[in-house]
Design goal:
The complex is a heterodimer. Chain A contains 25 helices and 37 strands. By secondary structure, chain A is of the alpha/beta class. A 7-stranded mixed sheet of chain A has the order 16-15-27-26-25-17-18. In chain A, strands 1, 2, 3, 4, 5 and 6 form a 6-stranded mixed sheet that branches. In chain A, strands 33-35-34-37-32-36 form a 6-stranded mixed sheet. Chain B has a domain of about 100 residues: Alpha-Beta Plaits. Chain B contains 4 helices and 5 strands, in the order αβαββαββα. Chain B has a 3-stranded antiparallel sheet. In chain B, strands 1-4 form a two-stranded antiparallel ribbon. The longest helix of chain B has 13 residues. The radius of gyration of chain B is 23 Å and the shape is elongated. In chain B, about 25% of the residues are buried. The chains are: A alpha/beta, B alpha+beta.
Chain lengths: ~850, ~160
């Protein structure tokens, strides 16, 4: 336990941790709200706004004896400060007395507010922040009723300054608290905002090109204590008091950020509820109070006019609209014809309930083929054992701890983890980044390791060999619980070249989290990487306790849930090579991969459950419209195995149904019971059948952990517009290593780096945060932020191929070809071309393949 | 005697001017503060006063008002400043004519005027839309939306003066 001291606030004493910030201590322990503008519990205090002035005094002691000096009535004598002090730059010490309600303090607050308002436009009626604005509420509570300033003397500044495409700045409303600048500098580390000019002309400018170039810009609007920063997405969408906040989970990446969907009826949408904005919901264990711009602005898929609103069936070769009855009938007949030769391929945006419904259907049909999309994922078995232990929180990592980020560009694949890993590194945790190329996280790394494409597992094997060689291993654990250590030791005997510095830092760290992606890996390489990471963690004893373990960077929000419920990427691969007679593809655009497209052609009958009429739907015989996250209740399991619940925010689009319901309707034709009444009952069935989920139920998931500091609470909005943990903070499933059972290590047969011939190019697909999948590209606002399709080439390769930067080139491999713009620099290693996935609609393999790059057209000359 | 007094009263009233108004041929003058049907006002230059802030809807005890706002541009300007009311509806069956909306309005855009002859044959007709509520532009002034010189109407709230 940390040391506590006695703090006296307004004559009442409280026990608070020593060294705590006074504003936080007063709020959390005493319930006393010291008003603040520039202070934010997540940022370093700067004392710029002077709103938190309080009277601070200390108990007097006799200089010689150290005895407390007492008044006649026995109370201690207090030496009050001669002037008021800013509470936000003060930490709590023993014998501290604070007065927050005396006349000078109230007078000071009044004066500060009068000063802040001296140039404020007071256009609260049209301000998006009006109604949830700290400046507004603190003025009502502490401010003067009138101003003594000369109104004609107000500064008039630009009111409509776009900071990039997503954020608008109103320079008149800005009170120069620098929260936005400090957020970008301290938390994100993107140097995009700065102060310009001096004095009353001081203003926020963006100093990056393109302007405000960061994935986290939306958070500045949350923490802005006035209406200076507002989002282009919400702009005048509603007044805050008219909105209904529905807790939800972001469906875009494996982090599983807690969000709320603020909904309101909308005349343009036909008088139905629509999502007006997405705000973060505080969950200190997952996303703290931050979300990325993809989650915040990428919600428009839920009511996109491009979505499929009614079932389609193929009649005379054409897909035509049909009723659910007809479509289910047609689907059932098609599946019937295939007999047991049926396979299911499910995407990672489906909820656990959907996946269970599909599994029940598949089992009812007599099939055991449950495929997970994408097909490039490795065997996730080691994760059951060494996945991050429950209670793991990046926020707890600091000095003495270590994080290894391998084979992933974290900023592009899981932005909030990027932000949290970066902060852990700032706090002193040793960050080691291993990848085939530079990523933004390298900047914060204590050490970066490079490996050839495909060689991720070799890096970890090397580290394990070094750790075993130097005896940086957990001998007690190995002796008592680990099986297979002898084999591993033998297999690693001849492995050398592991980076000993890195191995020492990682192996001897107090806590170690390995964040492993599948960037530049095929399934075999990914399988090897996960097992190698598990070996290292077990051998060095970093399993089974909080803040330790393996964290996989899955491609989707519920990939983990799908794995837990029996879906496997390997099954998909088997289905792609030996296609079953009938395929049921749900929430997965498998036509984006040539192998998937081929399987769709080979299968006699394809049922597609989808949000959008994508290429997979076009190849299907029956297309069933399913619902997105915000249209129904359900659960996702994030990559930390935290089961989190989302709630119905608005009505369904068109006739769409939940995938589990659609599956159950289909199942009725095969003698399965009628659809369950609601998803809670589906979860009940999951809990009964799947062991790790035994304690999960919808009511249990509504429980919310106490959040510290309590930023989301509405009172005063001191931390901005992040919402409190309404709707529950989720339940983390324990890893098997937390029990007493055996831990398994086994030698990894690493496939090694891909071999590339002299004149060949290895085309490596990489994931980008902003892509053109309909789930994201349906948010029109983001279009300018999505990069044009490009391929990154090495200078040497480009010279050999006669390609210059900006040329249009055709990248082809495995019979698939995409036309993209070439970017030539030293980013890609020689012999490798990085091709971002899903930036264009053309299908392309999702694993590294050898291919060719040919010039199609020269770059357009840059006009002057 | 009493009988005669009674008849005298009747007789006297026969020659007095009647107090009855022959409505609808004849209408009684309204008090200035009579609260009839709402009107959305315009400035003298023809721009709408309403900025779509929805404070009227917030103040309304009968939940009769529905406002949706959108953004002005200089090419298509409805009101001064950045924001205007894209949708403005009042359900007259709900309205209790309390006038709180007019009190809440920061630009004095909504005023309860003297129109009182409200009749509708179904519930949908009772919802007055912005076109019905908005007063016509002043004589000789263009209506809204209109194109304006950039930078001329960038403030939503009328300029404040120093307290005298």
């Amino acid at each position: 336990m940390t040391e506590t001291v006695t703090l006296h606030i307004d004559g009442v004493s409280y026990e608070v941790p020593a060294g705590m910030n006074l504003v936080d201590a007063a709020r959390v322990y005493a319930g006393v709200e010291i008003p603040v503008f520039c202070y934010h519990p997540k940022l370093e205090p700067v004392g710029m706004c002077r709103m938190c002035l309080v009277d601070i005094g200390f108990e007097m002691r006799d200089r010689e004896s150290g005895e407390l000096l007492l008044n006649e009535d026995g109370t201690p004598q207090i030496r009050w400060g001669r002037k008021l002090e800013t509470a936000c730059t003060t930490t709590v010490r023993a014998g501290m007395h604070v007065r927050t309600m005396t006349e000078p303090v109230q007078e000071a607050r009044k004066d500060v507010l009068e000063f802040l308002l001296s140039s404020h436009p007071l256009d609260c009626p049209i301000c998006d922040k009006g109604g949830e604005c700290p400046l507004q509420s603190l003025t009502m509570r502490h401010g003067p009723a009138t101003s003594r300033m000369v109104l004609e003397d107000k500064m008039h500044l630009a009111k409509h300054v776009p900071l990039g495409d997503l954020i608008y700045l109103d320079r008149e409303r800005c009170i120069q608290c620098a929260r936005c600048i400090r957020f970008q500098d301290e938390i994100v580390g993107d140097d995009v905002l700065a102060f310009h000019e001096r004095g009353r002309r001081l203003q926020i400018v963006t100093i990056s090109d393109p302007p405000f170039d960061t994935y986290f810009s939306g958070n500045t609007t949350d923490i802005c204590p006035v209406g200076a920063l507002t989002t282009a997405d919400f702009r005048f969408g509603a007044r805050p008091w008219e909105l209904q906040d529905v807790p939800s989970i972001c469906p875009h990446c494996p982090v599983g950020c807690n969000i709320v969907a603020s909904t309101r009826l909308d005349r343009d949408a036909g008088g139905v509820k629509v999502i007006k904005r997405i705000l973060p919901r505080q969950n200190e264990a997952v996303n703290e109070i931050w979300i990325c711009d993809k989650g915040r602005f990428g919600h428009h898929h839920s009511l996109s006019p491009d979505r499929l609103a009614a079932p389609l069936i193929r009649k005379n070769g054409e897909l035509v609209e049909a009723s659910w009855d007809e479509a289910i009938q047609a689907a059932a007949e098609g599946l019937q014809a295939a007999g047991k030769n049926v396979g299911v391929i499910a995407g990672p945006m489906l909820s656990n309930e959907d996946l269970w419904g599909l599994r029940e259907l598949a089992e009812g049909l007599g099939s055991k083929r449950l495929g997970l999309w994408p097909a490039s994922l490795g065997d996730a078995k080691p994760l059951d054992e060494v996945g991050v232990a429950s209670g793991t929180n990046f926020a707890a990592l600091g000095k003495g701890d270590a994080v290894l980020v391998i084979a992933t560009d974290l900023e592009e694949e899981a932005p909030i983890w990027y932000l949290r890993v970066k902060q852990a590194a700032d706090r002193g945790a040793a960050l080691i980044v291993a990848n085939t190329r530079t990523t933004k996280l390298d900047h914060y790394a204590a050490q970066t390791l490079r490996f050839a494409v495909g060689g991720a597992a070799d890096v970890l094997n090397g580290l394990t060999a070094a750790a075993i060689g130097q005896k940086w291993i957990a001998e007690d654990l190995i002796e008592s619980r680990v099986s297979g250590f002898g084999d591993l030791q033998k297999a690693l005997k001849n492995v050398s070249g592991g980076d000993e510095d890195a191995a020492e830092v990682l192996a001897r760290a107090e806590n170690l989290v390995i964040v492993a992606g599948n960037d530049g890996l095929d399934a075999e390489g990914h399988t090897a990487l996960l097992q190698a990471a598990a070996n290292f963690l077990i051998v060095t004893g970093h399993v089974g306790r909080a803040h330790n373990g393996l964290l996989p960077v899955w491609p989707g929000a519920n990939t983990q849930g799908a794995l837990d419920l029996g879906y496997e990427s390997a099954d998909t691969r088997r289905m792609l090579s030996r296609t079953p007679r009938a395929l049921l593809v749900a929430g997965a655009d498998i036509a984006a991969d040539p192998a998937g497209a081929k399987a769709l052609q080979k299968a006699d009958f394809v049922v597609c459950m989808t949000l959008f009429p994508d290429a997979t739907a076009e190849a299907a015989d029956v297309v069933l419209p399913i619902q997105s996250t915000t249209e129904r209740d359900g659960t996702f399991t994030n990559a930390e195995r935290r089961v989190q619940r989302f709630y119905t925010a608005h009505g369904p689009l068109g006739e769409s149904l939940s995938a589990w319901e659609a599956a159950a309707l289909l199942g009725q034709h095969f003698g399965l019971p009628a659809p369950r009444y609601n998803p809670a009952l589906v979860m009940k069935a999951i809990a009964a059948a799947v062991k790790p989920y035994a304690d999960i139920s919808f009511p249990a998931l509504t429980a919310a952990e106490v959040q510290m500091p309590p930023i989301g609470e509405a009172k005063g909005f001191y931390g901005g517009t992040a919402r409190p943990p309404i709707g529950g903070t989720g339940i983390q499933l324990p890893a098997r290593s937390e029990g007493r059972g055996k831990l398994h290590v086994k030698p990894v047969d690493a496939p090694g780096a891909f071999e590339v011939g002299e004149d060949e190019l290895l085309v490596v697909p990489v994931r980008r945060l902003y892509d053109r999948t309909p789930e994201f590209a349906s948010s029109k606002l983001m279009h300018d932020r999505i990069p044009q399709p490009f391929v990154a080439l090495n200078e040497a390769d480009a010279a050999r191929l006669g390609v210059a930067s900006g040329d249009t080139v055709e990248v082809s491999a495995d019979g698939a070809a995409v036309t993209v713009t070439a970017v030539v620099d030293d980013y890609a290693p020689q012999g490798v071309a990085f091709l971002p996935l899903r930036l264009s609609a053309d299908p392309f393999p999702m694993i590294p393949v050898t291919g060719t790059v040919t010039r199609v057209a020269e770059a357009l000359p840059v006009g002057d | 005697m009493n009988v005669i007094r009674g008849f005298a009263t009747t007789l006297k009233h026969l020659f007095m001017e009647p107090v009855t108004y022959q409505y609808p041929e004849e209408e009684r003058p309204f008090r200035d503060r009579y609260k009839g049907r709402h009107v959305l006002k315009r400035y003298d230059n023809g721009l709408e006063k309403c900025i779509g802030c929805a404070l009227c809807a917030a103040a309304c005890p009968a939940d009769a008002i529905w406002v949706e706002a959108a953004e002005n541009t200089d090419e298509e300007r409805y009101s001064p400043g950045e924001r205007y009311a894209k949708t403005y509806e009042i359900n007259m069956l709900r309205c209790i004519f309390c006038g709180y909306c007019a009190d809440a309005c920061p630009t004095e855009a909504i005023v309860l005027e003297h129109e009182h002859r409200l009749s509708f044959t179904n519930r949908r007709d009772a919802i007055y839309t912005k076109t019905e509520l908005l007063e016509p532009p002043p004589e000789g002034m263009p209506g809204t939306p209109r194109q304006v010189e950039p930078g001329t109407f960038d403030r939503a709230i009328p300029e404040m003066e120093d307290p005298k």
